Amino acid sequence: MPRRNMVEAIRDAMDVAMGRDDNVVVFGEDVGYFGGVFRCTQGLQQKYGANRCFDAPISESGIVGAAVGMAAYGLRPCVEIQFADYVYPAYDQIVSEAARLRYRSNGQFTAPMVIRMPTGGGIFGGQTHSQSPEALFTHVCGLKTVVPSNPHDAKGLLIAAIEDDDPVIFLEPKRLYNGPFDGHHDRPVTPWSRHPQGEVPDGHYTLPLGKAAVRRAGTGVTVLAYGTMVYVAEAAAEESGVDAEIIDLRTLLPLDLETIVESVRKTGRCVVVHEATLTSGFGAELAALVQEHCFYHLEAPVMRVTGWDTPYPHAQEWDYFPGPDRVGRTLKAVMEA
């Protein structure tokens, strides 16, 4: 089976989708001739022409607004916002138009579109290239939100998102683009030494939106994570010696609550790890759901390990988001509670 990094897997997903359906179009800032700032669309314009893979003006609201119109009239746009930090000018189009279209038209129109965005830190991008805004989208009814952690999942989930009849926010952890890392704090730019790439099948395949994956079995504590933090959680479990069961959520909405509840009822403990800030982060929703569905099985309070409640600190980037040491200390504290 071919081995690809996440950039290659995402590119392959768009290639497969465009090859199967002439209605799939790809556009955004620098995605055509240049192939995207992270090279995710490299070669697509040359293969499919400038009518199906093309550059857009530097106007996020224009990019998303055009995609909503295209989707309403039968196309399946897959647009790229160059960094998740740039999406805010398009937020009104996403919330007021894309997410509402099916409901406000009573099903007469839908918005089968994907908005791809590199997310998270770890590349020394500073405040305007490192944010993790997933909670802003999970709050909006009508949107689906996906965060893959590996190349195999990235391809299968992206094809599923493109084929979905509703708008999907597809957040791509940029720290994982060129190969998952091993999660250890002292190797921020080293590819994951054990598996620098992942096995990604050729051709068409999909993964269901709304189905989590158990990445590490355990009986002591359930760790809920997504994206880059899956690897941090794995490293923390190894270093701390805690028998942690690590669940990779993969899609935040729809959420695989069944897998979460089954695991927490088994372990009796739960730690949520995400890179975004603490207050009103998606971890708060996860903690509330665990409390509601697993209250009589819990042996300790649900804990969260997250980024700081500050603007993104360029000089302290590797202290800002959770590392194995901070996650490991929380795992031990939960086990001792």
Structure summarized in a few sentences:
The protein has 2 domains: 3-199, Rossmann fold, CATH 3.40.50.970; 213-336, Rossmann fold, CATH 3.40.50. It has 337 residues and is an alpha/beta fold. It is built from 12 helices and 14 strands.
Describe this entry's structure for a reader:
With 337 residues, the chain is α/β, with parallel strands linked by helices. It has two domains: 3-199, Thiamin diphosphate (ThDP)-binding fold, Pyr/PP domains (Rossmann fold); 213-336, Rossmann fold (3-Layer(aba) Sandwich). The chain is 34% helix and 18% strand. The protein has helices at 6-20, 44-48, 60-72, 91-98, 101-104, 134-138, 151-163, 229-240, 257-267, 282-294, 317-320, 324-336; strands at 3-4, 24-28, 53-55, 76-80, 114-119, 144-146, 168-173, 198-199, 213-216, 221-225, 244-248, 251-253, 270-277, 303-307. Helix 8 (229-240) crosses helix 12. The longest helix is centred in the first third of the chain and has 15 residues, at 6-20. It is globular.
Q: Features of this protein?
A:
337 residues, alpha/beta, Rossmann fold, 2 domains, seven-stranded mixed sheet, 12 helices, 34% helix, 18% strand, globular, Transketolase-like_Pyr-bd
